[in-house]
Design a protein that fits this description.
Length: about 375
Amino acid sequence: MQNKYLAMTPPMGWNSWNTFTWNINEELICGAADALCASGLKDKGYEYVVIDDCWSLKQRDENGRLVADPEKFPNGMKAVADYVHSKGLKFGMYSCCGTHTCAGYPGSFEHEFVDAETFASWGVDYLKYDNCYKPKHIDGEILYKRMSLALRNCGRDIVLSACNWGTEDVHSWIQGSGAQLFRSTGDIQDNWQSVKNLFLSQLDKTAYSGPFCHNDIDMLIVGMHGSSNNEFIGALGACSDLEYRTHFALWAIMGSPLMIGCDVRKMSAATLETLGNEDLIRINQDIECRGPYCIRQWNNPENVMALVKPLSDGSLAICFVNLSETRSEMSLQFWDLGIPYAANMGLEFYNCYTKENEGKFAERYVAQIEPHDTMVFIAKPAKLK
Ligand code: GLA
C-alpha cells in the first residue's frame, strides 16, 4: 500500500492553526479548500488541507475511538475529507503522541494503532503529530516510531508530520522513525523576530533534511498581518509584506514544508504573489532536496549571508539575505561556490523576483540589500568566452 513517492519533496498546503487555532469548523475547512483552488495555489503545488488541534470531542467513544466534535463538524470527518478530495486536494488532521493534545483534547498515546485505523477510515492523507502531555518515562523516539508504524500499516498512505519542536535531538533519529517531516523549532509567531530566530536556529541542521524526511521550520505566517486569534502567535505585531517575502524565501530554500497559515479566503495581491512565486516553489521542490550551505559576508557575518542550494539540473539557487536594520552589501565570490579563477567559467544570473535574466558574471556578484530583504537567483555555470 505504501506509496514510495509519499512526501518525496517538502509537503505544501494550508493548516488551520496559525490564524484560527480553536475556532475551526467544516465551513472554514471546505472554504480553505475552495480558496486554494480558486486562487491558483493548488495548481502551483499546494495540495494538503490540514485541520490542526481542537477538532474532537474531549472524550473517546465507548469503543475507544476519537470522535469529531459534531458542533464543528456536523457531517463528520469523512464528509470533510470527501469534499477536500473532490477538489483534487489531500486531507490532513492532527493528533498528539501524549495523553492529550496541546489544547487538552484526547491524544493518541496507547491508542496509536486504533487511531491510525480511524484516520484511514475517514480518508486522511497527512497526520500532524504533536508532543504535548508526553509521559516522561518514554522517549519521544519510541512514540514517533509507534505512530509511524501504525500509519504505515493502516491500509492508506498517510504522511507523518512529526512535531516535537526540535527536542530530544530529533534530527539525529527521525529518519529511522519513518516520519516524512519533523518540526525542528518551537511555535512560530507572526513577527519578524520569530522568523529570524527560527531561520538562524536551523542553519547548522541543513544536512539533516532530504527526500522523504524534511526539516519543518514551522508553518508560514505569510499574509497573516496580525489576524491570529491567539495571543502568543500574534504577540509583538505582524510583519511587512517585504518581511513575509523574506520569510517565504528562507523557508523555500531551506527545504521546509510550505504550509500556509493565513486565511486563504482573504489574501491580498502581495500575499498571493509571495506564496505563488513559481521559481521559489521550484527551488523548494527540487527533487534532490539538498539543504543549502551558507556563505557569510566577511564584514557582517551575523546578518548578511548567501544560502546556496545545488539544484538537480546543475544550477545553483542562491538567496542573499540581510537580517540587519541597515542597507548592507553582499559580495559573493564564485571561488566559494567551486568556480576557480582560471576556468573561464562564470555564472549566468536569473532573478526570481524580477523574472529577469541579468546576464553573465565573472568572479563575483555584488548586491546591496535592503534591511530584512532578500534577493533570490538561479545561477547557471556558463563559459565566459
Ligand atoms: C503545538 C504545535 C502547534 C499547534 C499547537 C496546537 O504548540 O507546535 O503547531 O499544533 O500545538 O495546540
